[in-house]
Design the sequence.
């Protein structure tokens, strides 16, 4: 696809996303399986894989908004249930609509400790179904829940990405720009070890599963990114390791070993 076409496509996603933000229908979550008899673990079925959405700006935006409406409460609840220290679980999800950015997702916190999870439009445009979006959301949220940002090493700045993301999320007015600068100033390097990436894959898969998405299907996004690479989610383990980690998380949930 030529760059000019891609730019129009991504701009269309953002315009539609803003229109849908207050009116997208809430998808119905699948019912929980019946309770098992005392002492017996009830196998948990994997949700049906989500259908691919039409590769149009409207479909991408609609899918993203619908996924976020299911993932936001799941992410917050998981954070409240698993946090082992005083951290904020009031997540803010933002979209960076600046043209020319590579597919990327990131997690940071503002100066008050509120977690920010952001996505570039090109990442949203690269996904093909709701499960892939949910998997990325869960992965990035898991970095905050697992305290990976505070354990970072390296010394590079991600402020430019955060600035654009927060400004977009808050409408681009003076107050939005001021808030973007405030948050961007608090951002440092985001280097995660391979172990941390695998930890986030594991917990992110559980969060997506708890929201009614199929993380195994969602992790097929790995098949379309470099192996290993420095696109999308930071420094990566191998594709095989990540896919195995997702399958392990799902198996553990289905066997009742984790929730």
Sequence:
């Amino acid at each position: 696809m030529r760059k000019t076409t891609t730019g129009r496509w991504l701009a269309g996603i953002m315009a539609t996303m803003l229109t849908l933000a207050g009116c997208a229908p809430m998808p119905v979550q699948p019912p929980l399986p019946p309770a098992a008899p005392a002492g017996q673990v009830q196998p948990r079925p994997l949700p049906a894989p989500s259908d691919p959405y039409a590769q149009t700006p409207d479909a991408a935006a609609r899918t993203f908004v619908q996924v976020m409406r299911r993932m936001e409460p799941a992410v917050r609840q998981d954070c409240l249930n698993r946090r082992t220290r005083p951290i904020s679980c009031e997540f803010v999800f933002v979209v960076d609509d600046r043209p020319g950015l590579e597919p990327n997702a990131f997690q940071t916190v503002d100066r008050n400790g509120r977690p920010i999870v952001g996505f570039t439009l090109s990442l949203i445009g690269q996904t093909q179904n709701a499960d892939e979006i949910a998997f990325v959301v869960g992965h990035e949220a898991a970095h905050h829940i697992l305290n990976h940002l505070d354990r970072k090493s390296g010394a590079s700045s991600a402020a430019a990405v955060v600035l654009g993301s927060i400004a977009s999320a808050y409408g681009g007015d003076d107050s939005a720009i001021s808030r973007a600068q405030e948050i961007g100033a608090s951002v440092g390097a985001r280097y995660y070890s391979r172990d941390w990436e695998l930890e986030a894959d594991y917990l992110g898969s559980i969060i997506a599963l708890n929201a009614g998405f199929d993380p195994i299907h969602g992790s097929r996004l790995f098949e379309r990114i470099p192996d290993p690479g420095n696109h999308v989610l930071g420094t990566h383990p191998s594709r095989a390791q990540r896919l195995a980690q997702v399958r392990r998380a799902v198996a553990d949930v289905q066997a009742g070993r984790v929730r």
Notes: The radius of gyration is 18 Å.
